[in-house]
Structure formats: C-alpha cells, structure tokens
Amino acid sequence: MSQTPARRGRPVTVDRVEVAATALRLFTEHGFGNVTMDDVASACGVARRTLFRLFPSKAAMVWGGSGEARDTIADALAAAGHVDLPEAFDVVRSAFVASSTFPAPALEVTRQRLRLIAADDELLAWGTARIGTSTALVEAFLTRAQGTARPSLHVRSFAAACSAANFAALVWWAQEAPDDDPAGVVDDALSALVDGARTWAVPG
What we know:
- The protein is an all-alpha fold.
- The protein has two domains: 16-61, Homeodomain-like (Arc Repressor Mutant, subunit A, Orthogonal Bundle); 65-201, Orthogonal Bundle (Tetracycline Repressor, domain 2).
- 70% of the residues lie in helices and 0% in strands.
- The protein has helices spanning 16-30, 37-44, 48-54, 58-63, 66-80, 87-99, 107-119, 121-130, 135-146, 153-176, 182-201.
- α1 packs across α7 (107-119), α5 packs antiparallel against α6 and α10 (153-176) runs antiparallel to α11 (182-201).
- It is elongated.
- It comes from Oerskovia douganii.
- GO terms for molecular function: DNA-binding transcription factor activity; transcription cis-regulatory region binding.
C-alpha cells in the first residue's frame, strides 16, 4: 500500500527570547545544575534539536544579551573619537551606563540572569571566556587618550576596575535593590572610580 508523502509546511518559528525566559524561570526555580536541556525543550514545547540550534548550551541561555551590552560599550567608545584625559573617564562611565540601561520588559529577565551568574562560578567563567569583558576595550580607549603606545599602570588598573565595578554594581542591583534603576546604580559605582582617577590624570 503506497503512502502519500507528508507535505512540508513552513518551519515553525520559535521565539528565542521566550525560550530564554522559560529557561531562566526553570533555572531560578529548580537550580541551574538541576535543569537539563531536555527539561527546557519540554517546557517550551520545542524539539531538542530546535533548542540546540537556538542555544548551544544552558549557559548560553543565561548569558544571552551580554554580548549586546559589550557592543554598546564598544560603540560608545568608538563614537567618542579621540578625547584627552580626564574627559575620557566620563566617556567610559557613560558607556557603561548606556550598556546598563534596559527596557522595562527586560528588567526581570536581566535580574534573573545576574543572580544565576553570580551564584555559579562555572557559569561566570563560561561567559567571561566566550563573551569577554570590557576591560580591553576601555584600556585601548584610555591608552589612546593618554597618548602613549602602551597602557600605563593606572590605565590598566582603571580599565579592570571599571569592568569589575560595573558587574558588581549590576549584581548588587539584582540581589539587593531590584526596584532601583540599574543604570543609576552603575553610574554611582563608576563615578567614585572616575573621581579617584582624576587625581593621577591631571599633570603635576
């Protein structure tokens, strides 16, 4: 008995953002290590193969959006062009603030992401290794502003401190002050660093 070949319909469109939101909810409720990719696929009503096309791993679901934040910083530094110290410090601060400005619908998902990352060392290491930090971007920008071929000790230290303070401020917001404006929290944290940096940026 011959069978009629099945028709190939239009591929089902899967909302990547909704899948990530569902995964984050599962990770938050049950623990990141206790949820499998199969669990996520089942909760989202998608095939396992489809899920892996969207996200290569659970960690990628958690870190989604972090690449865009780094791109925002890169774009802001590039748009500033060449500026001198200490004006460059304010450019850096503004770039981090811009990267921490989230639309209202994304705030809760961002909180969940940050809480999960802060609670899992392997998850933190995954994102740092694959997405990178903003340290190198800031260091290169400030080295140009300082007019030197190589970064000074102060420039390198300041760049690393800004990246660390930005992350620490966002985690603090997610854990301790979720009703505050994350961009404002980051601005407060980096303003203290900028004030300190001015002491070595002004020629003696």
